[in-house]
Amino acid sequence: MYRLSSIILVLFGFTQILAQSPHGDALKIDCVKCHTSESWKVNSKTISFDHNSTGFALNESHSKTDCVECHKTLVFNQASNQCASCHTDLHNATVGNDCARCHTPKSWVVTNIPELHEENGFPLVGSHKTLNCIECHKSETNLRFDRIGNECINCHRETFNNAQNPNHVTGNYSTNCIECHNPQLKEWTPSNFNHDFFPLTQGHNIGDCNQCHTTNNFTDASPDCVSCHQTTFNNTVNPKHADAAFDTDCKVCHTTNPGWKPATFDHNFFPLTKGHDVQNCNACHATTPNYATTPTDCVTCHQTDFNNTSNPNHLVNNFPTDCATCHTTNPGWTPSTFNHTFFPLTQGHNLPDCKTCHTTNNFTDASPDCVSCHQTTYNNTTNPNHVAAGFPTDCMACHTTNPGWTPATFDHTNFPLTLGHNIADCTQCHKNGNFTNTSPDCVSCHQTDFNNTTNPNHVAAGFPTDCMACHTTNPNWTPSTFNHDGQYFPIYSGKHQGEWTNCNECHTTPNNLSTFSCIICHEHSNQASLANDHNGVSGYTYVSSECYRCHPDGKG
Fold it and tell me: What is the pLDDT of residue 555?
């Protein structure tokens, strides 16, 4: 029997190769996954085919269903995986054709009704939570769930039309019930109308809507204060709102406190600080009952104070009538300040008595020029003598406003006073008392130093009198440098580099660097031989100066 079974399976395999499968070309699995050699009938206990691989898992009741109930033909891929292909739609397509949205393979009982309504944008809360489906979804079969919309009015039109307190129709109320009513509650009351567009606070927090909505039309009530409070506005006399041309928007000064107070007014355009912080508006607005036209100029209220002030006399000194230029709003006008930034009063200029400088009692004609106050000091100064030296009369050129005029500085950038030149006494260089004609040439001060120098002898060597050619401004003249290569003869470069150690090797005359000898080193074989080498050289003589005349660069 075992051999027979094996033969049958082999033959079955050949049959599969030679014959066409009744299940269609798409089914590629081995026959033995479903069939046995004993019978073509599929045994549910031995079948090894995994239906999950088709994308349609056999769960719950589907796992107990006979294959032929879904697969009407032997070509299995012709069976649809849509619920409606097997199950009659008792809802008449009113909820779509996806049964799995509401039902599961375990049971037809729907357990996720609240979730389904949330997905559709209508959560079942409050009284809606306990309703039977057919109370909203009415049909002849009770199985049709036609969409009725998520708007409240779709179900509550009759309730809306019959409402009388207030009348929703004549009041032109919104048909969106949740604007006033809480869907979480089982009754229509209490209502919670969102009046945030016009907050009902304090004096506006009244229980009777008709006090403001007098026309029974709740959409045409104006949010303007004067629409309700015109009479109060007209009758107010402290201050008189109408004559003062006050704004009819009560919120400018008042809150919704009953009794209209405390009241405030945004006086930021003219801050009421210190002396201006008065409780009686008429103290300033006495002459102009129209508050909107009251001038903000100081002199409007303080002309008498201005005219009578004598310390200093504001009229005579032509002071500005804008009190804020010098004064704050402190009572008594003190302390007062004056913006003297055009002529800063610092240090020695910081004087308490204005008349020290403003001697004419006219504060507008005082000159900012230093000499207008300090001419005498300028004339009498002798260290140095400013007049003789022709110094500028603009004291700021050298002095700050420090009392005593010291320390004083002078912009000496035209001749920098560095190192040895940085001396405290100007007269050491400016000996003639005239600071404007002192020569910047070194020799004008250092001729004696130049003449007396012997190491080396500057005069005998014919050195330039411009000390800066070799020296800095270091005291004692050291260290010094001399540009021998650039000015005279290359000894630090070329063939002479490294061939000498002492100046006297070439400069054979002590203390006279203007003389030098070439033939000490360059006599060659002898004078006669050298003369023979220069045969034909015009003017040749056996003298060092002649060597230099022809060989100034040190080359042969």
Answer: 67
C-alpha span between 239 and 423 (Å, rounded): 78
Q: What is the pLDDT of residue 221?
A: 80
Question: What backbone phi and psi angles, to 5 degrees, belong to 94?
Answer: -80, -15
At 419 the pLDDT is: 84
Contact (Cβ atoms closer than 8 angstroms) between residue 454 and residue 515: no
Give the per-residue pLDDT at 161: 92
Residues near 527 by Cβ (< 8 Å), separated by ≥ 6?
542
Dist CA 501 CA 507 (whole Å) = 12
Q: Is the dihedral of CA 358, 359, 361, 365 positive or negative?
A: negative
Contacts of 415 (CB under 8 A, 6+ apart): 421, 440
Give residue 365's pLDDT: 75
Low-confidence stretches of the chain (pLDDT beneath 70):
1-19, 190-192, 287-289, 361, 432-434, 510-511, 523-525, 554-556
Per-residue confidence (pLDDT) for residue 1, from 0 to 100: 35
pTM over 0.85: no
Give the C-alpha distances (Å, rounded to integers) separating 487 from 20, 479, 523, 551.
Answer: 117, 19, 26, 15
Please, what is the Cα angle at 186 between 182 and 187, to 5 degrees? 75
Question: What is the C-alpha to C-alpha distance for residues 205 and 256, in angstroms, rounded to an integer?
Answer: 9
Cβ proximity of 347 and 373 under 8 Å: no
**What is the residue-wise DSSP string for 353-405?**
-GGGT-TTS-TTS----THHHHHHHHHH-BTTBHHHHT--S-GGGT--S-GGG
> Of 127, 171, 170, 130, nearest to 152 (Cα)?
127
- What span, in angstroms and rounded, lies between the C-alpha atoms of 203 and 232? 14
The whole-number pLDDT of residue 525 equals 52
